[in-house]
TrEMBL record:
Transmembrane region(s): 12-31, 51-71, 83-102, 108-129, 141-163, 183-204, 224-252, 264-283
Species this protein is from: Galbibacter orientalis DSM 19592
Name of this protein: Arabinose efflux permease family protein
Cellular location(s): Membrane
CDD domains: MFS_MdtG_SLC18_like (cd17325)
Keyword Transport: yes
Membrane topology, record value: Multi-pass membrane protein
Entry coiled-coil feature ranges: none
GO CC entries: membrane
Keyword annotations from UniProtKB, A to Z: Membrane, Transmembrane, Transmembrane helix, Transport
PANTHER family: MAJOR FACILITATOR SUPERFAMILY (MFS) PROFILE DOMAIN-CONTAINING PROTEIN, MAJOR FACILITATOR SUPERFAMILY DOMAIN-CONTAINING PROTEIN 10
Length: 299
């Protein structure tokens, strides 16, 4: 594989990551208002709206957690590209169902469906990047993967907040489907996801990870050392805090600060901007930290 082809593959993978996280970011500022509209349409108690907002936020990563290992195994068996394509198809369907939902039940179905299928995109995309990059450059490429993800969180809330505040007076109902101004951000994300789906399906080459089964049992035990458990625990705490912040900030902004979806989107954009700046910075400094650690161990 020449350098140009490798760069093209990396670009397509980063584009896929960006679009999926863009769709995730679009929902963040609009979810409280969208849930409120659907809850009132279902004649639910207004006191239960915040509960549904929190549950709708949590149910998406819950189903990602349940299915991510399955997608990883399937990608080892069939290659990375088919699984990424399946995830992008699920992403498009989730955005359409979300934008055209007429009840909280449909919104829950959309979130569950999206959690199941989009859980394949991020880990399998990172596995693809790992497959085509050398060990020396892998940390840097993973840093850029983090930039693509953070960029989606930067632009998604702004786009979601802006499009949901448009002056388009759309209001159409077709059976169980409903279209209004809150549908616009999700239809935009679905269209963007469909374009990326076609581009990835046509231009991205498949790759599989070669496994060897000669590894001794002792090395398998080494994988589950206390350091591995500590890293898992740290990852859990970070994701827990981030999800908690995303849920509470949107509710607090709506109920206590009187923000509209556009203002909440700007708040999320600022957080995502800091993440996008810091991730490649830390990734580029990892070799320096490893060198210093090695030097200190020799002393």
């Amino acid at each position: 594989m020449d350098k140009k082809e490798k760069l093209n593959r990396i670009f397509l993978i980063l584009l896929s990551l960006f679009v999926v996280m863009l769709g995730y970011g679009i929902l963040l500022p609009t979810l409280p208002y969208y849930t409120e509209r659907l809850a009132l349409g279902d004649n639910l108690d207004t006191d239960s709206i915040n509960f549904h907002i929190g549950f709708l936020t949590s149910i998406y990563p819950l189903f990602q957690l349940l299915f991510v290992v399955l997608w990883g195994r399937l990608s080892d068996k069939y290659g990375r590209k088919p699984i990424i394509i399946v995830g992008l198809i699920g992403f498009v369907i989730m955005q359409l169902l979300t934008g055209l939902a007429t009840s909280l039940t449909m919104l829950y179905v959309a979130r569950i469906f999206g959690g199941i299928f989009t859980s394949s995109v991020i880990p399998v995309s990172n596995a693809y990047l790992s497959d085509i990059t050398s060990e020396k450059r892998r940390t840097k490429i993973m840093g850029w993967s983090g930039v693509a993800i953070s960029s989606g969180v930067i632009f998604g809330p702004v786009i979601g907040g802006f499009l949901s505040q448009t002056d388009l007076h759309l209001k159409y109902t077709i059976g169980l489907l409903h279209l209004d101004r809150f549908s616009v951000p999700f239809l935009f994300a679905a269209l963007l996801g469909l374009i990326v789906l076609f581009v990835v399906a046509k231009w991205l080459k498949n790759t599989t990870r070669v496994h060897t089964f000669t590894t001794q049992k002792a090395s398998l035990r080494f994988t589950f050392t206390k350091y591995f458990v500590v890293l898992l625990g740290l990852s859990f705490v970070i994701q827990f805090v981030v999800t908690l912040f995303e849920t509470v900030f949107s509710i607090y902004g709506k109920d206590e600060l009187g923000f509209n979806s556009n203002q909440i989107g700007i708040g999320f954009m600022l957080c995502g901007s800091i993440m996008a700046v810091l991730q490649p910075l830390f990734a580029n400094n990892i070799p320096i930290l490893e060198h210093n650690s090695l030097f200190m161990s020799k002393i």
